Amino acid sequence: MIRRLHVGPRLSEAAIAHGVIHLAGQVPENQPEADISAQTREVLGHVDRLLAQCGSDKSHLLSVQIFLADIHDLAAMNAVWDAWVVPGATPPRATVQALLADPRWRIEIVVTALQVGEPTP
Fold first, then answer.
1. Is pLDDT at 121 greater than 80 in this prediction?
2. What is the rounded CA–CA span in Å between residue 77 and residue 106?
3. Angle 69-60-105 (CA atoms, 0-180°, nearest 5)?
4. Which domain covers residue 30, as residue numbers?
5. Do 68 and 98 touch, CB atoms closer than 8 A?
6. Structural domain tally of the chain?
7. What three-state secondary structure class fits 58?
8. Which domain CATH number covers 79?
9. Which pLDDT band, with edges at 50, 70 and 90, does 32 fall under?
């Protein structure tokens, strides 16, 4: 069985199947004009919120894909990431430069995590 959260006409924000959570790419919705540090903090906040709704948290990340509009933002993004990620539970991660759907976005993050609790209704 697949459970989907925040289902829209084009995508769901999350899907849970066989105890694995797949999040859609999370982007800076509230601060599209902000710098990479602020956008990264916002996006990681979306990840935290969605994982909690799915019955998990950042200590159960299985893999992360990070897309940067400008690879020169890597150091500033990593500074925010390093403060957020759980020491000793850092997931496999890929970071690439990519043309993002909105030119104001500097980052998009895709997460896969292990479900450890029940999703919130």
1. no
2. 10
3. 15
4. 2-114
5. yes
6. 1
7. helix
8. 3.30.1330.40
9. confident
